[in-house]
Amino acid sequence: MKNRSHADDILSIPNDIIAVIWSNRSGFLNLLKLPESRTPTEDDAISGRKAGNQACLTFIFRQQQQSNMSDITLYSHASGPNPWKVVALLKELNLSYNTIFVDFQNKTPDFLSKNPNGRAPAIVDHKRNDKALWESVAILLYLEHHYDKENRLWFTNEDEIADANQWLLFQASGIGPYFGQKAWFSNFHHEKIPSAIERYEKEVHRVLGVVEKHLEGKEYFVGNKYSIVDINNYVWLVNVPWLLNDYQTAFEKYPNTGAYVKRLGEHKGIKEAYAEKAAAAEKH
């Protein structure tokens, strides 16, 4: 068995603790008698550990790794779809971010102070006075509004803006809830309830029918243009084969949707986000 190093012990500290430490970084650095102008080293971290100040050394080791504060802190989890739409957009906008994976069995006061609803994702925007925000669609709209000044991922035509809002809300009120309930009752509920599984599977097919008809002859959801609407919907539609437990033929009934998912998966932000998601799933 491989021996654990001091660095391994340091990196095992939960990320939500790191967030608290970050907010008090000046005091922690002062405690270790390190000037804020000097980037701490791993040796500093190990010395701190030997002195028993594990929280402090954790901060300085992570500070050495990141060296500078990210633009955004993202509270996330590895499995569900919603955090990864935010990651995809952050990558499209070239915003730096630090991810804190939330333990939903042990929600910390720090996380709940950012998101009283206690669900991921949530963000803190360090470029705008540590503005905190939760709900994934709200986060997409916020990031696009502040950091997509050229409207690469949004619209200027009033009718297209109305359509974009319609499809954003359709995901939030239709695709997300029905897909989520189908996943829950089929895979996670403590007992099988056939009537619930049947109900939500029917709703999944109904919603997919709406999407399939809309995408006929279209490359994107709105205005023949890649936008946050597509990012928002992709992270749910890509899960259809898993949701229906049919990895071979799930999209045969919905060929427009299947082709759309395949196309979208090649976009920079989505492709990079899902590579990161796969890596996160192995660790969390």
TrEMBL record:
Q: GST C-terminal domain: which residues?
A: 157-284
List the transmembrane segments: none
Stored Pfam families: GST_C (PF00043), GST_N (PF02798)
Q: Which family does it belong to?
A: Belongs to the GST superfamily.
Q: What is this protein called?
A: Glutathione S-transferase
Traced from the root, the source organism's taxonomic lineage reads: Eukaryota, Amoebozoa, Evosea, Variosea, Cavosteliida
Its signal peptide is: none
> PROSITE patterns of this UniProt entry?
GST_CTER, GST_NTER
Which organism's genome codes for this protein? Planoprotostelium fungivorum
The record's section on InterPro entries has: Glutathione-S-Trfase_C-like, Glutathione-S-Trfase_C_sf, Glutathione_S-Trfase, Glutathione_S-Trfase_N, GST_C, Thioredoxin-like_sf
Annotated GST N-terminal domain ranges read 70-151
